[in-house]
Amino acid sequence: MKKDRPVNLDISTISLPVTALVSITHRVSGLIMLGGVLVLLWMLDSSLASEQSFNELKQTLSHPIALLIVWGVLAALAYHTVAGIRHLIMDMGIGETLEGGRTGAKIVIALSAIAILAIGGFLLW
Q1: How many CA atoms lie within 13 A of 69 on its CB side?
Q2: Where are the beta strands (DSSP E) in 58-105?
Q3: Rounded to the nearest 5°, which phi and psi values hold at 63?
Q4: Which is it for the CA torsion 20, 22, 26, 28, positive or negative?
Q5: How far apart are CA 14 and CA 6, in angstroms?
Q6: What is the pLDDT along the chain (125 residues), one digit of tens a residue?
Q7: Does domain 19-124 fall into CATH 3.40.50.300?
Q8: What is the DSSP secondary structure assignment for residue 3, as one 8-state letter?
Q9: pTM over 0.90
Q10: Do residues 57 and 46 make contact, with C-beta atoms less than 8 angstroms apart?
Q11: Exposure string over 11-39, b if 16+ CB within 10 A, otherwise e
């Protein structure tokens, strides 16, 4: 094995393909959902504990930062779902080529953006 191969350790100069970005983001969205489920379960528990805790939670969720957190968790869920469906489609043998993978990754980005914006509009409405 050659020992004098060039090594690029500057991550800011590496240009990742769209398929790699979608894959990495799919994993990150899974981690966000892991923490977000804890927040959503706490909210469910608070809403069901008593009428007073429900009203307190309702008041807390009227704050923009709380809405941003909920939107972030739901955005991660939407992205993770769309990317997961892409993986299921690829498991059926559709879009396994290099060009199919690129096209599928671009579709994931587009559909996720639409879903995330729709969720944000629903939360603000």
Answers
A1: 13
A2: none
A3: -80, 140
A4: positive
A5: 14
A6: 667 777 777 878 888 899 999 999 999 999 999 999 999 999 999 999 999 999 999 999 999 999 999 999 999 999 999 999 999 999 999 999 999 999 999 999 999 999 999 999 999 88
A7: no
A8: S
A9: no
A10: yes
A11: eeeeeeeebeebbebbeebeebbeebeee
